[in-house]
Structures
1.
Amino acid sequence: MALKSKSNQDPNFKPGSKVEIMSDESGFRGSFYLGTVVKATRTPKFTVQYEKLFEDEEGTKPLQETVNEFQIRPIAPREKKREFKFSEEVDAFHNDGWWEGVITEVNENGKFAVFFRSTKEQIEFVEEDLRLHREWVNGEWKPQLEGEEAKGEKQEVKEKGNKGSRKKKKLSEEDEEEVTKEVKRRVSEQVPATTLVKPVESLKDVEFSKGMLAEVSSDEDGFKGAWFAASIVEPVGKEKYLVEYKSMRKEDDGGFLREEVDTIHIRPPPPQNVVVDRFKKLEEVDALHNGAWWVGVVSKVNTFPKYVVCFKDSGEELELQHSDLRPHQDWINGKWVAPSHALKL
């Protein structure tokens, strides 16, 4: 049975409407690109044409794709003038698309350092290439503009250097899982590999000593994004430590696994000074699963103390106990940064 949709009656998505399109291709997930609705079907799918992405290397044939309903939204509004602040969640215009990040530095030269979680990279942007991050929820933007009209559909995304071209594979035609649109958008978010302008020093203000507790991340397939509890055994050369995991054992079960780890993959345990009585739908959390903490989004609130959590990296959903969740925080430049309260829906 086809999924029901009201989107084809939505004036925001009529043929000819300017929209932003979320990519579902690996390496581009979570980014939004400017385009136009070409055709609306009787299913929750639309044919769109991109403005800055092309099918050919010469950049003469704009790319057209069939995308799912949750992948399109009107052009996001932005303030005519805004003073961006430390720790604000923003969209940064990069490689012809908008990518979500967190402001980690406000520099005197008028530029802003933006941190991308997935790659642990930090890139500088000018104010004109930033906008406050907003969510398209139930037909309106959250948070709304304050005291100014949305520039939305009047917005012209400026061309950055050579237009270039980018080939993309066609999206799957399989029906999407019946999950809240906003959850699907969030869990799909990935940041692309980009040129590293400035490395993030994860131990900027922290020195680990023998016996200290820590959390260690992995780059192995199937474990990316997970943080495992460990203790520091000893330093090993420059910017490297020998750690002993608390939940992973050696293959011969002869004790807990020890491993040498670079400092960029080590952080202290997050502070537990925030007690949460109840988590809300769409709230970003860390979930304890298979001995590690994984970033996810609460997609459903079941009878307390149970929640359904959708994991960002895999898109998998699991039902977990309240005791297995904690508020998500990011370790940025030697400090713990919580998500912007302005985005709590």
2.
Amino acid sequence: MTSFLASSRVPMLLVLVLFTLTSLTGSSLGNFYQDFDIIWGDWRAMILNDGELLNLNLDQASGSGFQSKNEYLFGKIDMRLKLVPGNSAGTVTAYYLQSKGSAWDEIDFEFLGNLSGDPYILHTNVYSQGKGEKEQQFYLWFDPTADFHTYSILWNPQRIIFYVDGSPIREFKNMESIGVPFPRYQPMRIYSTLWNADDWATRGGLVKTDWSQAPFTASYTSFNASNACVWINGASSCDSNNFSPPAWLSEDLDSTNLDKLQWVQTNNMIYNYCTDAKRFPQGFPLECNMS
């Protein structure tokens, strides 16, 4: 759809109205044929079940990956994933938003594989203007390889919230007022890759990928970006005069979700850059000093 819109002579107002109507009618779950392009790995990335399922595979020769056809500037985006089962040590399944250029913005979910029976590590990060170093890591409270689970990103001008099965696990607030960059100006595509990172992914690189277990497979379904602002030809689908701003564009965490966030961070967080004094001997980043 993006290539058609970019090349057609349909007036931009009509384009924006079409996307507005799609949003207002609550479009159903996405189709991988319509919404994504395979960008890496040839046959190792496979769209199945009439576009309802996508599998990424990793073998010793190559990993694989895909990207969204659309770019987005703010949104609430859901994807259901089932991660590599068994001995996944050395593998990384990444699911993230990223803009273009050397001063890019990025919002990351990364799933670090582990030996059979050991928990996955969910690694999160936020980049703005090419600078990240805002990592938080978690153990999940379920087996992410046994079934599909929903991983969501809420990104609006005030905050970024990471959700797992509807429960918030991390909030990164816009603190530009104190000099902390926030990803607010660059549209981003959705990407996902499955790749070998056994030089660092599992126990700091001590555990290597067991290629006798290959191919490794991660599966995706139920993509939903109906609550997102599509960026086309320098304009947002949310800027139409006919568009009524949705609730998610100013969404905050209510008291119930704040309690859920606190529970996850107390019981399942295993690393927080804001408490790593050895890493920041000259003082923590500015946002770490805010409550």
3.
Amino acid sequence: MSSASTLSSICFEQGCWFKGERKIRVTDKVVKRPSSMSFRVSATSSASKDIRIGLLGASGYTGAEIVRLLANHPHFGVTLMTADRKAGQSMDSVFPHLRAQKLPRLVSVKDADFSSVDAVFCCLPHGTTQEIIKGLPTTLKIVDLSADFRLRDISEYEEWYGQPHQAVELQKEVVYGLTELLRDDIKKARLVANPGCYPTSVQLPLVPLLKENLIKHENIIIDAKSGVSGAGRGAKEANLYSEIAEGISSYGVTRHRHVPEIEQGLSDVAQSKVTVSFTPHLMPMIRGMQSTIYVEMAPGVKTEDLYQQLRSSYEDEEFVKVLEEGVVPRTHNVRGSNYCFMNVFPDRIPGRAIIISVIDNLVKGASGQALQNLNIMMGLPETMGLLHQPLFP
């Protein structure tokens, strides 16, 4: 038998499996879920997959990314999609690039039948999610991509988001979903608050260093840059092509809403209050995010110590890669993927180091990490549906 026919036999007669995943047969035969529950897998339509997914806020960029990623997921199939302003429309009329998928029509949240789903991705705008999630059946597993449940301190939420928290009791059971660092808690969670894009790119490199007391808690400076898709799909004058192209603009200076989320995570691991200097910038690109972080090392610590700590922390992680020494991470090299690339460089100022971390703001910074979290919550390999390689050029 030729090599080509052998590959065909393996893939189409026996089913395919991928790096980091258990053997999954893409046929109509009964197979075993990691939790030992049996189910059927079909490679045809979304509705025929065994775990039924509801997607709230499907008409935004993060909703569209969820749909794109789930197209290659063997178990998650979208059976419910909401978009109040687009209710009654088909998904391909809102996002023509998703035309090849068989998807349900969009409905308003008030008309959604949640008895037909097992889990929910919530991609609604900040400030609208708390009331809706509070009213969902308690049997559902939920990953919320908004900021509504990320801050544990209710008063801090009100201070930064300008409105009272509408689901105080529910907040108590929320697990923050920075996957690589909190997966044991995520496994047991019913409701996960998916991290913001900037906090993901900042915490992944800083948490292991703070945990080992390799850097000081003071004088952390974060210079972060994001593509325009991070601002959402809504029509805004500041996001027009003529406003964005051929220029860079800072925004949210000293008051960006991701600041308390970053400080919450860093303070938790440092076991003392950490305050950062954080300035985000809008770049004339569609997607991608880079955080350049300036830190002061603890006495006696060298840049090589930081590098080795990050290498050892993430050596077994699929989606976080510490590059070879001297290699500068680029947003182009993670575009469209769930990967975070990072590296550490010595500063010219003695005792300081520079850390560069890059992600795709819509994938690892939003929808990809959300899928990674739901995989864990459902007892599946966390890489499932996420092993797309970055898109380049």
4.
Amino acid sequence: MADSVPELGQVAGGGFQVFSVDAECIKQRVDEVLQWVDSLEHKLKEVEEFYSSVGVSNSGSIGKDTEKGRHVVGIRKIQQEAARREAVAAKRMQDLMRQFGTIFRQITQHKCAWPFMHPVNVEGLGLHDYFEVIDKPMDFSTIKNQMEAKDGTGYKHVLQIYADMRLVFENAMNYNEETSDVYSMAKKLLEKFEEKWAHFLPKVQEEEKIREEEDKQAATEALLAKEASHIKTTRELGNEICHANDELEKLMRKVVERCRKITIEEKRNIGLALLKLSPDDLQKVLGIVAQADPSFQPRAEEVSIEMDILDEPTLWRLKFFVKDALDNAMKKKKEEETKTGALNGTQKKEVSNKRNANNKLAERKTKRSRV
């Protein structure tokens, strides 16, 4: 069991030793169990966050897939399958870009393509305002270099090439006058390019559809694998929580064995203190009694707690719980009184300031009337 705490009395290596259960030993053991419980709470929070992010509807669909016997693969296999799909998709895209190369050559070999073959010579042509009009210069030689790049810096998708091809013509048409030859050549080439792209586009759309389906499949498999992991974690958490409860119960009984018995007077005081508890705290008291006595009915219309028949561990739990509950209630009451007192003090100060202001105003009016 992951993150388990050794049994009471167990030493490294699995053996056991006999030792006196003194206060320091019990305190140390309680600290260990509390740290253990903290780790369990952290795991539980992770599981809760997962199901909160997935949502009820998705979680239900996952459960149905599991019930149907759908194969749930592990995280490592999911990662391997995702890498394989990505490599296959990259190869298909490389094939598409190679096919697009035919269109690229047809456009660049056209008689109107020569003004766009290389970057615009801004300084040589004296185009001082070029970069004020054009944000991203583009030309065919730059596109060709990107298409042929082998160092991983080239195009990853054919739509990137398409966008840069259009940018070449759009830049020319944005900077040059409509009556210019460059504008006319750019417009003519753009029309031819769009015509050829229209015939090529179905292949691109088919690839996009395949990728979308693959992404959905990958996301579903990853979700299934993650839920399978959380189901296992939840099962382990249930076992560990039971184990932690057993450890705390064991420690509590060890403590009680070393304690004196609850006196008749203390039992009476516990009973009287119950009358001062809030409804929520009373429900917790009934829960404590129910844990000790399975036949006790905490939800009955009339509930009677017989102090004389309760065992010592339960009496001590009630004693400590009642004391803490009343102390917390008193502390909360004092905080509210302090807050109310501070508020009243502020209000009194505001009234005093307002009264002083009114007095000063009255004095000014009196002086003016005398004048």
